[in-house]
């Protein structure tokens, strides 16, 4: 995340923050209303570092979720396949009661 010193209508200097958008890759400025207003460069730089750390943690968590999903089975798909198989095996059976499931 980059910082840029800007001047508002009253002539006071504040810092705005620019990051690269994850989907488009274009530099995107955070709206003034969405970011805290800093008058000192050190505080603005510290806040930018915390945001970089936060986004890095979110990116790492997303990668771990994708890795976990690819390494483990999709049980929803297994349930659908089981239901389809059960219906082919006994097409007239009702799936609403435990008794009919136990009888199959």
Structure, explained:
- The protein is 50% helix and 16% strand.
- With 104 residues, the protein is an alpha+beta fold.
- It has one domain.
- A 3-stranded antiparallel β-sheet has the order 1-2-3, with helices on one face.
- A hairpin with a 6-residue loop joins strand 2 (13-20) and strand 3 (27-29).
- It is rod-shaped, with a radius of gyration of 27 Å.
- 4% of the residues are buried.
- The model has no long low-confidence stretch (mean pLDDT 81).
Q: Which characteristics define this entry?
A:
rod-shaped, 104 residues, alpha+beta
How do the helices and strands line up, and which of them pair or pack?
Layout: E1 2-7, E2 13-20, E3 27-29, H1 41-71, H2 75-89, H3 98-103
Antiparallel strand pairs: 1-2, 2-3
Number of strands: 3
Q: What is the CA-CA span between the terminal residues?
A: 61 Å
Beta content: 15-25%
Which structural category fits the helices and strands? alpha+beta
Number of helices: 3
Mean pLDDT: 81
Number of domains: 1
Shape: rod-shaped
Point out poorly predicted stretches: none
Largest sheet: 3 strands, antiparallel
List the helices and strands in order.
Answer: EEEHHH
Secondary structure: helix percent: 40-55%
As a whole number of angstroms, the C-alpha radius of gyration is: 27 Å
Strand order of the largest sheet: 1-2-3
């Amino acid at each position: 995340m980059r910082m840029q010193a800007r001047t508002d209508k009253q002539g006071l200097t504040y810092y705005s923050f620019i990051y690269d958008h994850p989907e488009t890759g274009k530099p995107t400025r955070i709206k003034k209303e969405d970011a805290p207003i800093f008058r000192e460069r050190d505080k603005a730089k510290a806040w930018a570092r915390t945001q970089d750390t936060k986004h890095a943690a979110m990116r790492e968590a997303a990668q771990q979720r994708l890795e976990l999903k690819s390494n483990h089975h999709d049980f929803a798909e297994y349930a659908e396949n089981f239901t389809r198989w059960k219906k082919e095996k006994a097409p007239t059976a009702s799936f609403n009661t435990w008794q009919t499931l136990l009888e199959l």
